[in-house]
Amino acid sequence: MKNTSTGSVFYITIGILVLAVILGAVAPHILENATAAAQAFISERFGWYYLIVVSLFVLVCLFIIVSPYGRIKLGKPDDKPDYNIVTWFAMLFSAGMGIGLVFWGAAEPIHHYAVNSPTADVKTPAAIKEAMRFTYFHWGIHAWAIYAIIALCLAYFKFRRDASGTVSSSLSTLMNTDGAAGKTIDIIAVTATVSGVATTLGFGAVQINGGLSFTTALQSGFWIQFAIIAVVTVLFLLSASTGLNKGIRILSNTNLVLALLLFVFVLIAGPTLYMLNLFTNTLGEYIQKLPAMSFRIAPLTQSNREWINNWTIFYWAWWIAWSPFVGTFIARVSKGRTLRQFTAGVLLIPPLVSFLWFSVFGGASILLESEGIAAISELSTEEALFGVFEHYPLGLVMSILAICLISVFFITSADSATFVLGMQTSNGTMNPAVKVKFTWGIMLSATAVILLYSGGLQALENTMIVAAFPFSIIMVMMVLALFKALKEEKPGLKAEKSKNKQGG
Predict the structure, then answer these.
(1) Residue 459 DSSP one-character state
(2) 289-306 residues labelled b (16+ CB within 10 A) or e (exposed)
(3) CA-based angle 184:442:452, to the nearest 5?
């Protein structure tokens, strides 16, 4: 029987995080300065590496879709998917984007348009096009390719080869993962996961605070954000105790309904034709200019390079830091699908929905600003969405609905993360113990609180970029291990194809 108890990975990672939390509480400036220095070094010296490696992941996913390997199932030949398409999509979308879409939906496009455009002059028609195109770039195929790579590797080795389900187990074709090397890999993966998820929980708390301060007399500040995290922690721990098929599944579907309500309202109440035209035009430009954007590092222009470091490199690090969590979760709910179905679904459907989302909420904020109706760009990032709602009918109702959506996304992300962290630190068990999930839930919240306390959103972003770097190297190794394993299946695929031809 497989060992499902916690081991050294659990205790070592908890120890590392506890030390970081204590350091952040006792000497917040030391933590902030250390993470800022490391982040600046990685962004400046290894920005080229991030662009190349993430683009490589996109190419790998496209190859899987068109290659004969796409016929291979994530599981045994007779395995069927555990969830229907709608529920599967809702679960991977809630885990994969969630709070981020709501947080940046109006804020990122308006920033690129009115505050700091990638290359165009701000507040010009060219800036509108760039704002939307680069927002698509940051939330599009590249982001989901990162998730797809991790999920593919984990699901393949777990369901096809009966591996444990830990990140290290997906490297079994390259190395012996039972010793110190395997444990080190899992420790890096868990640390990256905590950093990525804690960052997003921090964003969620800040935006809930921003929404409350924008619509009421409540002020924004650390202690309000602390209280929000404390309340939501209790709620997601209650959800975590119910298991995957109750809490997470129900909350994921609730997310989808709330997000759809918000989306449809703004689309109908706002400049509908403008939004749809913006979506169509920007989608074409995104596809056309995707190769150039993928490798844009601006070596000759310092201001452009700083923009890339602050946005593109930040996003690639964010997705990489989130990928052990999202990848493990997507792998867990994707058993029975073929590699082609899985990769095409993950790589194409969520980006299209994200593009529509940004066209509606980003288009609304840009139009309000460009027509002189409201200065959305002068609001803080967390208040931008609520600033848009202020100029719409039923604005207060929509703000309340948005706060509810962010809260449910917060609960879903944290709930899913406790499940994944429990898996990764309990030898890959599909049903980690409640006490393990509770421990990780408390650590996630504590990490988010300390990072907010030591330096606000900037400390969150710095820590995430630093944690993502070593895990990106592990991801490259996972791709190599996957292809080595797939190559071993080649004779079987040829025999299957020949049998099908004879049968036809």
Answers:
(1) H
(2) ebeebbebbbeeeeeebe
(3) 90
Check residue 500 and give its pLDDT: 45
Residues 6+ apart with CB under 8 A from 102: 207, 259, 385, 402, 405, 406, 409
CA pair distance 57, 482, nearest whole angstrom: 13
User: How far apart are alpha carbons 148 and 140 in whole angstroms?
Assistant: 12
3-state SS class at 4: coil
Closest CA to 169 of 478, 473, 487, 486: 478
Q: What is the mean pLDDT, run by run of 10 residues, along the chain of 504 residues?
A: 64 86 79 80 89 96 93 86 80 67 90 94 95 96 94 91 86 86 88 80 84 82 88 80 62 78 92 95 96 92 89 89 82 88 89 93 95 92 90 90 84 79 81 85 86 70 79 94 88 56 47
Q: Which two tokens stand for residue 171?
A: 């490297």
**How many other C-beta atoms lie within 10 A of the C-beta of residue 418?**
29
Strand partners, 338: 73
Residue listed under structure tokens 């009966």: 162
pLDDT of residue 1: 40
> Beta partners for 73?
338
Whole-angstrom distance, CA of residue 319 vs CA of residue 39: 15
Rounded Cα gap, residues 432 and 375, in angstroms: 48
Answer yes or no: are the C-beta atoms of 134 and 285 closer than 8 Å: no
Query: What pLDDT does 94 receive?
Result: 63
Distances (CA, A) of 473 to 34, 200, 320, 481: 22, 23, 10, 13
Contact 148, 482 (CB under 8 A): no
Question: What count of other Cβ atoms lies within 10 Å of the Cβ of residue 104?
Answer: 25
- Cα separation of the two ends of the chain: 43
Query: Among 240, 245, 178, which residue's Cα sits nearest to residue 3?
Result: 178
Q: What is the dihedral of CA 147, 351, 233, 155, to 10 degrees?
A: -30
Instruction: Residue 192: name the closest of 321, 36, 320 by CA.
Output: 321
The model carries a pTM of 0.88
